[in-house]
Amino acid sequence: MTQQWKAVLGLVGGLTLSSLAQAQGCYTVFNGQVVEQRCARRLPAVDSASEINRHLSPRCASLNDAMRSAAQQGNYNTMRDLRQEFTRKCADEAQAAVQTTYRERENEREQQQEQRRQAEQAQAQSRATAQQCDGMRDVIQSKRKRETTLNPTEVAALRQLEASFNERCLRR
Q: CA 42, 43, 49, 55: dihedral to nearest 10 degrees?
């Protein structure tokens, strides 16, 4: 493994670079002292290449696939060359594709949360209606037991409550 490749991996002279420098795509080449600081614009990772490739031009999508193939085959020189070409030709487009992919995922999550919220509201409304119907049924049963002792106004109120119960609770 060459000294430059070790620097890219973050393992130079047996030292490990800081995670912040690695996260920013920066590395320092050491030979007992700092020789040079190199920083490359890094593209954030997304789980699936096909998700990003949907938002890339065919040329950039092809380069992206070629980089992945070279990495899987362990062809590091080819991978380095492809990465440089991809960065030179497609970095801005890839950044926009990643952002679009993340926005799509966020929108999908928000839609799922909204659907869950609506389902919870529907369940809460259904429970509230069921409790209201149970209460109306209890009142109707207790008034029917003593219907003979009710005056005409209370009987009319009972009939109205029964009609409301039938409308709200039996026609659901």
A: -140
